[in-house]
Amino acid sequence: MTCISNSSNLNLTIRQVIKKYGLLQNNCYMRSLGQNFIIDESLLDKIVKSALPIDEKDCIIEIGPGPCGLTRSIIKHCNNKLICVEKDTKFKQLHNDIFNNVRFIYDDALNINLSNLTNKRIVIISNLPYNIGNALLTKWLLNDINRIDDITIMLQEEVVDRICAAHNSKQYGKISILSQLLCDVKKLFTASNKVFVPQPKVTSAVIKLTPKNIKIENLNKLTQLLDKCFLFRRKMIYSTLIKSYKQFNKDNINGILSKCNILPQYRPENITPTQYYELVKYL
Ligand code: SAM
């Protein structure tokens, strides 16, 4: 793909690009948008290589290109069509200066349905804005999963651990259940704070989610059930169900739980993703 213009910016390191465009100056830098930029180019390459191989017909979507360190690595390793979604328009000039064949959309990624951006199948590669990482992933799992081939993202390690958490653990919750039901999930590696400017206070990690290509019925019903269960983590499943599903009496609820091999006194974290999926079929 001949994505890159003749700009001299390409000869600059990412640190130099950040300096040239004054991206860390007080009037420019936006902490609220999670603007911690990766300056270690070998790490950027490592993230992209973790997403390979990518079908040449797929469209790659990057959320939050910012100064384009990851964007440059994507272009270096892939020939695919590339769409970037960035909320902060201050990067527009920089993007125009460097690329002439990448589609940049300036909008809030939370407002965008990825499936509306392209007719192709989608691969997501991104160093996500950490404050909305969980919300974005949930949105993709619920709305776009049938169009996605792979998701390789950097997030704070704590969120990556929640996505991968097994049942019976403290980190286990709604995002673990949705992610593991719909995808194979794999924590790939962690990254030191030193590779970012400015340095974030949290540790970061890269995770890969590969959709299982199974059709999950009742996804909305499932998320409603999970919201109810995890609102009070200490509450027994029997109590949550009897309070929330008034069409069922005690015997009905006990019968449903028994069919799913769930004990009435189980807490939300004791129930596996597959058991939740079974349970929702009866509710
Ligand atoms: N890709 C760059 C890198 O890896 O160094 C920057 C990643 S930085 C962690 C997150 C980026 O997401 C920033 O460029 C920020 O402006 C952008 N961003 C924050 N919230 C966003 C949103 N709701 N929609 C789209 N982009 C957003």
Question: How is this fold's topology laid out?
Answer:
Layout: H1 14-20, E1 37-38, H2 41-51, E2 59-63, H3 69-77, E3 81-86, H4 92-98, E4 103-106, E5 122-127, H5 133-143, E6 148-156, H6 157-164, H7 174-182, E7 183-191, E8 196-197, E9 204-211, H8 219-231, H9 237-244, H10 250-259, H11 273-282
Parallel strand pairs: 2-3, 2-5, 3-4, 5-6
Antiparallel strand pairs: 1-8, 6-9, 7-9
The chain binds S-adenosylmethionine.
For the terminal residues, how far apart are their CA atoms? Answer: 50 Å
What is the 3D shape?
elongated
CATH topology of the largest domain: Rossmann fold
Number of domains: 2
User: If you average the pLDDT, what whole number results?
Assistant: 93
Strand order of the largest sheet: 4-3-2-5-6-9-7
DSSP helical segment count: 11
Any idea what the CATH architecture of the largest domain is?
3-Layer(aba) Sandwich
| Computed Rg | 21 Å
Uncertain runs with pLDDT below 50, 5 residues or more?
Answer: 1-6
User: Beta-sheet strand percentage?
Assistant: 15-25%
Write the CATH homologous superfamily of the largest domain.
Vaccinia Virus protein VP39
CATH C-level of the largest domain: Alpha Beta
Total DSSP E strands: 9
Identify every distinct bound molecule in the structure, by name, code or SMILES.
S-adenosylmethionine
Query: What is the string of helix and strand elements?
Result: HEHEHEHEEHEHHEEEHHHH
Biggest sheet record: 7 strands, mixed
